[in-house]
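Need fresh eyes. Consider my entry:
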Amino acid sequence: MPVRRRKIPSGIFGDEDLQNKSIRKPIPKWLILAVIIVIFLIAGFAWVYHSYSQAAKRAQNYTNSVLDKQKTDAQNELQIMIDKIGKHILLPTGETPALATVMNAGTLSKDQPFYKDAQNGDKVLVYFTAKKAFLYDPNRDIIINVGPLILDNTKTTIPVPQPVVSTSTTSSAPLSIEILNGSSVAGVAATLANQLKTNPLFKVLDSKKAVNRNYQTTVLVDLTKGTKANLISSLAKQLGVKAVTSTPAGETPSKADALVIVGG
C-alpha cells in the first residue's frame, strides 16, 4: 500500500526561517577603515623603532671601535717613545709613564726653563713615582732635556706642557678619570677624553654614556676624599666647573679618582 507524504507547512523549519537566521548586519565601512589605519600605524611605529634601534647600535659600535682604536694607538705611541728614549738613556722601571705632546713651545719656553730648546711636536715622558721627566725630539731622535718632578708641601712643579699647579696638597700619581656623556649630543665624552689625555696629570680610564642623558651642565665629582686636591683643582679649572663630592642619583659609582659627566 503506497505511503502518503504530508507536506510541511511553510514557516515551520521552512526556507523563510532559514533565510532569516542567515541574515547578518554588514560591518560598517568606517570600522574596517579604522582597523586598517591602526594596523598601518602599528607597522609604521615598529619599523621606525627597529630602524632607530639599528642606527643606535651601529653608532655605539662605531664609537666603541673608535675609542678602542684611540686607546690602542695611544698605548702603541707610548711604547714607541719608551723604546726610542730608552736607547739614549736609562729610564725608570716599575711604573707606566705618562706621555704628552708639546703644543705651545713658545709660551712654555718663556715660563719654564725646561722647555728652552723645545719645539712643537716634541714629546714629554713623565714618571710620577720616579719623579723624572724627559723631553724628546722624535724628528731628530735626540733627548733635549731631563728634569726632576718636584713635589713638596707648598707647591708642585711639573715640567710638562700644562700650567704649573700650586697647592698645599699634592700627589705623585696622575688623576684617574671616568667620563660620561650626560647630554643628547653624541661623541662629546670621547672628545673631552682626547683633550684630557694630552695632559700627563690626568689618566682617562673610560668614556661612555651616562644613565641619565639630560644634564644641563657638566658635573665634576671628586672621589679622592681630598688626597689629590691639586689635581682636582686643575681639572675643575680646565672644565670651568666646581667639584662636588656626591655622585648624582642613578649613576653607577665610579672607581676612578674623578667622575666627569658632560652636560649641555
In short: Residues 151-171 have pLDDT under 50 and may be disordered. The two ends are 106 Å apart (CA to CA).
